[in-house]
Amino acid sequence: MTATEFQINEVFDIAARGGLVVVGDSRPGEFLGLPTLYDAGTGHPIHVLGVDHPTPRTRRTGETILVVDRADAAYAEVGRLWRTTPGGS
After folding, report:
1. Is the separation of the CB atoms in 47 and 68 below 8 Å?
2. Which residues have CB under 8 Å from 53's CB, separation 6+?
3. Residue 32 phi/psi, 5° resolution?
């Protein structure tokens, strides 16, 4: 089975939200349901709280919006790669 990857493009910490809002590209394809993700570099599990509704921008760009636990802030950085299979380098 091929792992789905999520490349982080932007991160927002909006106080009124229940977690960090992380915008990125998922490949190949989209997530079905709530994904289980791991940081590609360390294997650290990412606690995804939800997949947010698309916005006009994400509909145009094909990006995905995830809401993740603030405890994972160290792994939610622009350029970071997460994937659906564990394992780090």
Report:
1. yes
2. 65
3. -105, 115
The span from the CA of 88 to the CA of 7, in Å, is: 15
- d(CA 3, CA 11) in angstroms, rounded, equals 22
Q: Which residues contact 78 (CB under 8 A, 6 or more apart)?
A: 8, 9, 10, 11
Q: What does the pLDDT look like over 23-37, one tens digit per residue?
A: 999 988 777 778 899
Q: What distance in Å separates the CA atoms of residue 37 and residue 28, rounded to the nearest whole number?
A: 14
DSSP code of residue 16:
T
Burial of 26 (0-12, 13-18, 19+ CB in 10 A): buried
- Let me know: does 81 contact 3? Beta carbons within 8 Å: no
Nearest to 77 by CA among 50, 34, 49, 40: 40
Amino acid 67 reads: V
Please state the pTM of the whole predicted model.
0.88
